[in-house]
Amino acid sequence: MPVSPTVQLLGFLILLLATVRPLGLHMQRVFGGETTVLSPVLRPIEAALYRLAGVRPDEEQEWHRYALSFLLFHLPGMLVLYLLLRVQDVLPLNPASQAAVSPDLALNTAISFATNTSWQSYGGETTLGHLAQMAGIAVQSFLSAAAGIAVAIALIRGFARRGSTTIGNFWVDATRATLYVLLPISLVAALLLAWQGVPQTLAGLVTAMTLEGGTQTIPLGPVASQEAIKLLSGDGGGFFNAQSAHPFENPTPVTNLLGMLLMPLIGAALTNCFGRMVGDQRQGWALLAAMLVLLLAGAVSLHMVEAGGNPLLANAGVDQHLGNLEGKELRFGVAGSALFSELGTATSSGAVNAMHGSYLPLGSLVMLGNMMLDEVIIGGPGSGLFGMLLFALVAAFVGGLMIGRTPEYLGNKIEAREIKLAMLAILVVPASLLALTAVAVVIPAGLAGLGNAGPHGFSEVLYAYTSAANTNGSAFAGLTTNTPFYNLTLALAMVVGRFLVVVPVLALAGSFATKRRVAASDGTLPTTGALWVGLLLGVIVIVGGLTYFPALALGPIAEHMAVLGGTTF
């Protein structure tokens, strides 16, 4: 029987909060170059990788060199994954003899996983062979997450340093993120998943006898290892088409809880790492408090909506005491599905254990809202923290203007250059996704993919571009996206959502690193208490609400009003 919603939510929060301080301390030591418990084993490997790549770990980079390294880092990964998909029909470890992937789908998938988005316009077990899954999808899940963590660490250094022209070395930060953070946690998680029954094998297809006397072909593969990094990295693409609703990816309540814990694990701990590196842990706790308020608001709202059942079915006399179960696994129930879906859309993981297109309109509104807030609700590894810090700069700017003094944050003056860069990084995502949505719903190539008319059909398109531009990757279903139009335009949204956000963030890091500290005074706006958290939340909600409300009114809000009026959707 599913665990009660309150017990499940409290248990999850207790486990998550218990990991924040130790993992935050570990990351602070790792990126500070200090010795950790893993150093005796991993430091020789780290040094060998630097020699092989020709990297000098003691040589730091200015922000523009750091940004160039970040951009160059993604190109080989995209190319390798693209080629793996294009020629997989002649490669080994292809047990179901999957065909080569079309050029537009291969390009979409390569960009998707290299940008930490994990958008999938394909069915995993039917489209990709084992080699493409392991050497392509899983590898990019590690590398894209490591790159995101590196950017967050560079921004933290920008806040922490004074009069410096450098913000670290991208190659060193990405290497350490992979070796000391992602690999150890993924290894432990993969073993736990395999213990719970998640397959980890290079075997191909298995034929089983059904209860009716027929046969069924069951695909297997190295699922546990990919599932672990999928959930941890925020690159939540599933080995199977049904993702974490599939019993081979998520067979038990233990794996469901483990999956929910892995999704926000690094993003939450980075707030503590931030506080330690800037010299005041209260700063990190304030950011985490804002994240958790938004997370809890979404989780409670989503559960309440789905637990209330579908009013149209209730009016038809269908028993709804278990809630809206359409598209959900009975073994998880409404509570387990709602919390997982909240985390999947709030953390930018994109992992799902239920069909998001089957949620009620207000439920889809919550999930869309999670993604539209620019990954600030914990978000992906690294991207969640720097997304929240962008809003923190805007909130500090607004607060400074209200009290009539030059805005500052962590002893850094926020001047015209910094606020322009912050607003560019915040607004480029909604500008791109809303423009692409508008185009898709008026041209034949976009309309051809719709599975539903009216507000629900509009929500399908809006969800797709919101998911892609915010590097989430979850899908609303009902929209046929494996077409040249959607593959290419969604790829464009992913490129904008990753690279046109990161470059301004790194420019901010470089700008703040050169500044001299401003001494705190009686007029300094405190950035650690409840007042600050409230101001920060207000800025996030107002910016998100004003930007997206018209689009939401045409989609889930209009659909909800239709349901109240007794209209099917």
Strand content: under 5%
Average pLDDT works out at 91
Largest sheet, strands/sense/barrel: 2 strands, antiparallel
Biggest sheet, spatial arrangement of strands: 1-2
Gross morphology is: globular
Helix content: 55-70%
Number of strands: 4
Question: What distance lies between the first and last C-alpha atoms, to the nearest angstrom?
Answer: 30 Å
What's the alpha carbon Rg, rounded to whole Å? 23 Å
Helical element count? Answer: 19
Report the uncertain regions: none
Element string (H = helix, E = strand): HHHHHHHEEHHHHHHHEEHHHHH
The secondary-structure class comes to: mainly alpha
Structure description:
This protein is an all-alpha fold and 569 residues long. It has a domain at 19-279. Helices cover 64% and strands 2% of the residues. The protein is built from 19 helices and four strands. The protein has helices at residues 5-31, 39-53, 63-86, 103-114, 124-127, 130-160, 170-195, 223-233, 253-277, 281-307, 311-315, 333-346, 361-372, 383-403, 416-440, 444-447, 454-469, 484-513, 530-564, and strands at residues 205-209, 215-219, 408-409, 412-413. The strands form two sheets. The chain has a two-stranded antiparallel sheet. Strands 3-4 form a two-stranded antiparallel sheet. Helix 3 runs antiparallel to helix 4 (103-114), helix 8 packs across helix 9 and helix 14 crosses helix 15 (416-440). The longest helix is centred in the C-terminal third of the chain and has 35 residues, at 530-564.
